[in-house]
Amino acid sequence: MRVYLDNNATTKIDPLAKVKMQPFFEELYGNPNSLHQYGMDVRPALNVALGEMYDALNVPDADDILITSCATESNNTVLKGIFFKHILKNPEKNHIVTTSVEHPAILETLLYLSDFGVEVTYVDVDEDGGVSAQDMKNAVTDKTILISMMWANNETGMIFPVEEVSAFAKEKGVLFHTDAVQAIGKLKVDLTAMNGIDYLTFSAHKFHGPKGIGGLYVKKGKELPNLLHGGEQMGGKRAGTLNVAYIVGMGLAIKQAANHVDKMNVDVRRLRDKLEDAISKISDTIVVGPREKRTPNTILISLRGIEGESMLWDLNKAGVAASTGSACASESLHANPVMNAIGEDPELAHTAMRLSLSRFTTEEEIDYTIEVFIKAAERLRSISSTYAYTNEVG
Length: 394
Ligand code: PLP
Prior knowledge:
This protein has helices spanning 15-21, 37-57, 71-87, 104-114, 133-139, 162-172, 244-259, 261-279, 308-317, 337-342, 346-350, 363-383, 385-392; strands at 3-4, 64-68, 95-99, 119-123, 144-148, 175-179, 199-203, 214-218, 285-287, 298-303, 320-321, 352-356. Helix content is 40%, strand content 13%. The chain is globular. It contains 13 helices and 12 strands. The two termini are 39 Å apart. The structure holds pyridoxal-5'-phosphate. Residues 70-72, 103, 105, 150, 154, 179, 181-182, 203, 214 line the site of pyridoxal-5'-phosphate (PLP).
């Protein structure tokens, strides 16, 4: 049996999206900016797909949704756009507030911008991997131009207080961006209700759409300069020939994702909880974050004495795909970056495993995973001299 439990990294394509995309690789290959029939033939599908994105986020037509190549591009567009539009012109307001556990697409971009005089406050997470709204608010000063806070964390699944902090930002006249890559399809995202959000990032491959296509919501009046200059595509706001097939796929996938939020929060949550209950009974395990504060599909668990990667390989041999959530953070062993940020015990960062389900995960797959997970943990504990030693000395 093969079981895919790495859905926070990427997801399989929704079969309906695949079917809908197919004609755009074949007869409907025209450039939507062309004036001839081939161009005209594809334009309606583009409009339908954009409409699906507006509906899924519940935003008015007056706002913008830019199509990008991925969430990384969307995040870069916001941060570099704010730099060019605001900070470069008014260095008095050069401060950005973010969290210490954002995706590298935020953290690395801010590091780059700090060489150009941008000042950044990184608000820390607590021991559950959560972020306090009050800490975010306290970090804002008269110099703050932007708050950028992810909606849900990719490693822990912890949901961040976007509603409260975005409302505060609006009140203070500070711009607010959220990287919502891990929220779409898992949480209700309604930007008319949460009208303090000025910019929102999403990426199709995280919600059963194709890879290499993403989006950036931009509120009316909060327009940003182009990251990519060139042709007149996207109303001149993002140059480059539109990938109609992928846009069509993303449109259907986001519609499906929005329609399945309840399923995620009932059926997928039940399977996640079943898996979590079973594997957290293994002795000396720590699951990060209370489950009701997490996205319904995610578990980040540490098994003391077992390297995350050893566990990953044992699971992989049995056909189960999980993740250590690692960016190569140390010389020889991979440490989970969010576990590192949570701090306290460095061993936890090296023994962390992420399991992330999707709406396509089945009960049978979860039962099988429980069986192989427990077996792998027993096998690895029995050969781990460090664990035996730690246990002896207490
Ligand atoms: N932001 C978050 C929270 C993510 O989880 C990811 C993907 O891992 C990204 C951004 C980057 O997404 P993309 O691959 O579309 O650039």
